[in-house]
Design brief:
globular; mainly beta; three-stranded antiparallel beta sheet; about 0% helix
Length: about 130
Protein backbone atom coordinates (compact mmCIF):
# COMPACT_ATOMS: atom_id res chain seq x y z
CA UNK A 1 0.00 0.00 0.00
CA UNK A 2 1.36 3.38 -0.98
CA UNK A 3 1.86 6.04 1.65
CA UNK A 4 0.88 9.64 1.15
CA UNK A 5 3.26 12.55 1.65
CA UNK A 6 1.83 14.80 4.34
CA UNK A 7 3.27 17.56 6.46
CA UNK A 8 1.65 18.29 9.83
CA UNK A 9 2.13 22.00 10.53
CA UNK A 10 3.70 21.57 13.98
CA UNK A 11 5.31 24.98 13.61
CA UNK A 12 1.81 26.43 14.01
CA UNK A 13 1.00 24.03 16.88
CA UNK A 14 -1.33 21.83 14.82
CA UNK A 15 -3.36 19.88 15.68
CA UNK A 16 -5.10 22.49 17.79
CA UNK A 17 -8.50 23.10 19.26
CA UNK A 18 -10.97 25.24 17.26
CA UNK A 19 -10.88 28.76 18.65
CA UNK A 20 -7.16 28.57 19.44
CA UNK A 21 -6.44 31.28 16.86
CA UNK A 22 -8.44 34.02 15.17
CA UNK A 23 -10.86 33.30 12.35
CA UNK A 24 -12.13 36.08 10.15
CA UNK A 25 -14.84 36.21 7.48
CA UNK A 26 -14.87 38.87 4.76
CA UNK A 27 -16.95 39.59 1.67
CA UNK A 28 -14.75 40.41 -1.31
CA UNK A 29 -16.01 42.34 -4.33
CA UNK A 30 -14.41 41.35 -7.61
CA UNK A 31 -12.22 43.69 -9.64
CA UNK A 32 -13.53 46.11 -12.25
CA UNK A 33 -11.42 44.33 -14.89
CA UNK A 34 -10.36 40.78 -13.97
CA UNK A 35 -6.81 39.64 -14.79
CA UNK A 36 -6.54 35.87 -15.18
CA UNK A 37 -4.13 33.86 -13.03
CA UNK A 38 -0.71 33.22 -14.56
CA UNK A 39 0.82 30.14 -12.90
CA UNK A 40 4.22 30.41 -11.24
CA UNK A 41 7.25 28.25 -12.01
CA UNK A 42 9.62 26.25 -9.83
CA UNK A 43 12.71 27.43 -11.72
CA UNK A 44 15.47 28.18 -11.05
CA UNK A 45 14.71 30.94 -10.63
CA UNK A 46 11.36 30.41 -8.93
CA UNK A 47 8.59 32.77 -9.95
CA UNK A 48 5.37 33.26 -7.98
CA UNK A 49 1.96 33.18 -9.66
CA UNK A 50 0.49 36.49 -10.77
CA UNK A 51 -2.81 37.96 -11.86
CA UNK A 52 -6.12 37.03 -10.18
CA UNK A 53 -7.14 39.18 -7.19
CA UNK A 54 -4.79 39.72 -4.26
CA UNK A 55 -6.36 39.47 -0.79
CA UNK A 56 -4.09 40.26 2.15
CA UNK A 57 -3.99 39.14 5.77
CA UNK A 58 -4.73 42.77 6.67
CA UNK A 59 -7.98 42.56 4.66
CA UNK A 60 -9.02 39.90 7.18
CA UNK A 61 -7.82 42.04 10.11
CA UNK A 62 -4.99 39.55 10.69
CA UNK A 63 -1.18 39.72 10.62
CA UNK A 64 -0.66 36.44 8.74
CA UNK A 65 -2.78 33.67 7.22
CA UNK A 66 -2.59 29.92 7.75
CA UNK A 67 -5.64 28.89 5.72
CA UNK A 68 -8.23 30.54 3.47
CA UNK A 69 -11.34 29.04 1.87
CA UNK A 70 -14.01 30.64 -0.33
CA UNK A 71 -17.74 30.05 -0.80
CA UNK A 72 -19.57 30.23 -4.12
CA UNK A 73 -21.46 33.44 -4.75
CA UNK A 74 -25.21 33.43 -3.94
CA UNK A 75 -26.27 33.29 -7.60
CA UNK A 76 -24.17 30.19 -8.19
CA UNK A 77 -22.19 31.76 -11.04
CA UNK A 78 -18.70 31.97 -9.51
CA UNK A 79 -16.59 30.32 -6.86
CA UNK A 80 -13.14 31.19 -5.59
CA UNK A 81 -9.98 29.16 -5.95
CA UNK A 82 -7.37 30.22 -3.39
CA UNK A 83 -3.66 30.28 -4.33
CA UNK A 84 -1.31 30.87 -1.35
CA UNK A 85 1.43 33.51 -1.53
CA UNK A 86 4.44 33.94 0.72
CA UNK A 87 5.43 30.29 1.10
CA UNK A 88 8.82 28.97 0.12
CA UNK A 89 9.01 27.54 -3.41
CA UNK A 90 11.44 24.64 -3.41
CA UNK A 91 11.56 21.19 -4.95
CA UNK A 92 10.18 18.67 -4.03
CA UNK A 93 7.90 20.45 -1.53
CA UNK A 94 6.47 23.57 -3.11
CA UNK A 95 4.69 24.94 -0.06
CA UNK A 96 6.49 24.62 3.25
CA UNK A 97 3.80 26.10 5.46
CA UNK A 98 5.42 29.50 5.97
CA UNK A 99 3.31 32.47 6.99
CA UNK A 100 1.20 33.79 4.15
CA UNK A 101 0.95 37.55 3.84
CA UNK A 102 -1.65 37.23 1.10
CA UNK A 103 -3.48 34.87 -1.23
CA UNK A 104 -4.63 35.15 -4.82
CA UNK A 105 -8.36 34.79 -5.32
CA UNK A 106 -8.98 33.15 -8.69
CA UNK A 107 -12.52 33.75 -9.94
CA UNK A 108 -13.83 30.50 -11.42
CA UNK A 109 -17.08 29.91 -13.29
CA UNK A 110 -19.23 27.15 -11.84
CA UNK A 111 -20.01 26.24 -15.46
CA UNK A 112 -16.26 25.64 -15.95
CA UNK A 113 -13.03 27.57 -16.40
CA UNK A 114 -11.63 30.82 -15.08
CA UNK A 115 -13.50 34.11 -15.50
CA UNK A 116 -12.55 35.76 -18.79
CA UNK A 117 -9.88 38.45 -18.77
CA UNK A 118 -11.43 41.92 -18.55
CA UNK A 119 -14.69 40.69 -16.94
CA UNK A 120 -16.26 43.29 -14.65
CA UNK A 121 -16.76 41.46 -11.33
CA UNK A 122 -17.14 44.61 -9.20
CA UNK A 123 -20.81 43.91 -8.43
CA UNK A 124 -20.14 40.27 -7.55
CA UNK A 125 -18.96 39.15 -4.12
CA UNK A 126 -17.43 36.02 -2.66
CA UNK A 127 -17.28 35.21 1.04
CA UNK A 128 -13.87 34.11 2.37
CA UNK A 129 -12.91 32.53 5.68
CA UNK A 130 -9.37 33.20 6.85
CA UNK A 131 -7.62 31.53 9.77
CA UNK A 132 -4.38 33.04 10.98
CA UNK A 133 -2.85 35.23 13.61
Amino acid sequence: MATSATNLLKRFSFPKVPGDQPWSIIDVAGPLSYVQLVPGAVGPPSTPPSGAQRVTAQDFGLQALDFVVAMANPLGLYFGLIVPLGGTLTVPRLFLGDDMEAVLLVWMLIAGGQAAAGTNLSTTRLRLLGIGR
